[in-house]
Amino acid sequence: MANAPTRSRRKNPSIEASLRKRGIYLLPNLFTSASLFAGFYAIVQAMNGRFEHSAVAIFIAMVLDGLDGRVARLTNTQSAFGAEYDSLSDMVSFGVAPALVLYVWALKPMGKLGWIAAFIYCACAALRLARFNTKLDEEGDKRYFQGLPSPAAAALLAGLVWVCFDNGISGSEVFYGGLKMKWIAWAITLFAGLSMVSNLRYYSGKDINLRNSVPFVAILLIVLSFVLISYSPPEVLFAVTLAYGLSGYWMWVSDKLGQRRPPQDNVPEE
What we know:
By secondary structure, the protein is mainly α. The protein has one domain: Four Helix Bundle (Hemerythrin (Met), subunit A), CATH 1.20.120. Helix content is about 70%, strand content about 5%. It has helices spanning about 15-20, 25-45, 50-75, 80-105, 110-135, 150-165, 180-195, 215-230, 235-260, and strands at about 145, 175, 180, 200-205. The strands form 2 sheets. The chain has a two-stranded antiparallel sheet with strand order 1-4. A two-stranded antiparallel ribbon has the order 2-3.
């Protein structure tokens, strides 16, 4: 008796999409786990008084956080689990870790004002991440972030600690007989935290296509940037993150000044 022809099963795209959404993929989550470990390592080193190690660990977490999403997109391994895991990892590495590092390094002697500033930063990081997650599916200008990104805010605080440690400045340092380092750290902590929950625009770089050709000057600038960073990593990284943190306010002032300018009438030339 002849064998009956078997029917080929067609794959349902909706079922595949649902499985991918619920799946757990190893490669991107490895980067996320490494970023989480770097953030936790920064907390432990701050408790042991090794603030330079804490600052470097936060910068490493920032690099790893930038890689996990790109790896997931390149390998087509995006998932809902990965997105949630990445958000929780960011809360530890860029919310809790910088706040505790700054608190132990400079804010602790300030008493209530110190831990309140650290909590405000931590809470603002959580609010920033929650707002970002709720607006992922909304259509808008992808060239800009709304508010200072939490990795940039964490890099600003870590850069402050690193540059001070590199120059032999402690959290209890006093400048010119009255300006105390702890107040500078307190102000920068509040600045970074409040900037995260602001409506200021910060350039995201998502419109940069790495597959397009670039002029020779762009390659030269990249090489020079590596040279500058290798020459003095703390100063250069802190200057870059500080400039990026101020860029949102600069764009806001530029937009306000542009709106106040009266329209110029087109006068026909004689």
